Amino acid sequence: MLRQGSKPNHYTYPLLFKTCSALAAIGTGEQLHAHVFKLGFHADLYIGNSLIDMYAKSFRAIDARRLFDEMLERDEVSYNSMVSGYVHCGDIRNASDLFEQVPMRRNVVCWTAMINGYGKEGMIGSMFGLFLRLLVSADDVTPNAATMVCLLSACSKVSNYELGRWVSVFVDVNAIPLNVMLSTALIDMHSKCGDVNEARRVFDLVSDKTSSASWNSMITGYVRAEFPEEAIRLFGMMGAVHSKPNEITLVNVLSACARLGALELGREVHLYLGRSEMDMNMKLATAVVDMYSKCGSIDDACLVFVKAREKDVALWNAMIFGLAMHGRGRDALSLFDWMEREGIHRPDEVTFVGVLSACCHSGLVEQGRYNFKKLVSQYQLRPKIEHYSCMVDLLGRAGCLDEAFELVNNMTVPLDSIIWVSLLGACRTHCNIKLADEVRRVVLINSSESLNLGLFLLLGSVYASMGWWTDVEGIRRLMEDRGMRKTSGRSWVEVDESKDRLLLLE
């Protein structure tokens, strides 16, 4: 445009600054800002507002505020942009101060921006207090769908179902139109707060189901609530309304397949990825590797891992865990060595859970001790309950019971029932009555309130194997007093390798 001699005007620059914001091209934005001064547009209100928005969205709140203060004229958009900019940068104090100083009638955009700011910071009380102010404000503002989305998102973040349900009722009573964003926020709030039935009711009310957003929210809700079969069933319905799955959809469906052990269905999803020419990014690669590993096809998991163009920590972790659960501990350790040699990604706490799990599954005691020490000494990570559990299980299986008990006594995190389960199981396996009796005393004295069903059953089993029938009877009475009952296990299996035939076994 410039090379052809056409001169830009005050309509040109706001579009350019908006593009710079979308592309995070702040350097180009600064050059355009200089161009604005050169051509004498720096006093233009619309250009000034777009500059404030660009700098704020680029986390340059100080520069945005300096421009705001230098403006000769300000309107609602100026204040909205600056308040929203402070919120975007996490500066809730300055956002609140400026919000209270707005000299003109504050519109719903300004109120919603401030409500969103409190919600993002987890200040639920302040957020709802401001919303109640909005309802009785002299600004005469009516909340819209965006306002309700901000409230629902904050409730979802902290799983506050009481307030979330109140917002849901407010939406119904005031007949606020259910657009895609609001429907998705309602579904997400209900599912994150544990009410998937209400989430499904809202989903069924959505009139326009061509967008993948509401589908993704409902499928994610089912996976999170441990209803993988419902997630897969819903995925199968997407094609009927011509809604195209995206990355979020497929990651959740692959997770559902992994939980069900539905290998053939998972393979179909993997093939769909190839047919649709969707980019196999790191999230999808991680989901595919995890699915193949948990469905028993570790060779396919390895193939996907090797072919992945880029690898992040999550993908390395998924492959290490996959090899570990298939008993290929030495391969998992070799993969961990490869990860360390590349030096691109630093192992995290999850990586070491996989490494120690691999040692445990393969009985690699010395390697387990070495990597547990490396966790602290080389990477300065704090051991968590999962790391201790792997080590206690590893040492217990190897018969190093005294070492395992010493490790438990020196733990730097609160004890968990799973630790005692591992230790008592080892005592039973190796017939170490003395240590089992010591564990029994510690457990009943220090952890009686946190005992779970599994620990009660194992305690009873250990006592029975040692002939302590009085203690067995005591355990049964404790279970009855707490209303504990052993439920039958259940699992899903595919029949005749058909993705449409899944049986629930109990």
From TrEMBL:
An example Gene Ontology biological process: RNA modification
Q: Which PROSITE patterns match?
A: PPR (PS51375)
Q: Which Gene3D superfamilies match?
A: Tetratricopeptide repeat domain
| GO terms for MF | RNA binding
Q: Where are the PPR repeats?
A: 75-109, 211-245, 312-346
Which InterPro entries does the annotation name?
Answer: E_motif, PPR_At4g14850-like_plant, PPR_rpt, TPR-like_helical_dom_sf
Which keywords describe this protein according to UniProt? Repeat
Q: What is this protein called?
A: Pentatricopeptide repeat-containing protein
Task: State the taxonomy lineage.
Answer: Eukaryota, Viridiplantae, Streptophyta, Embryophyta, Tracheophyta
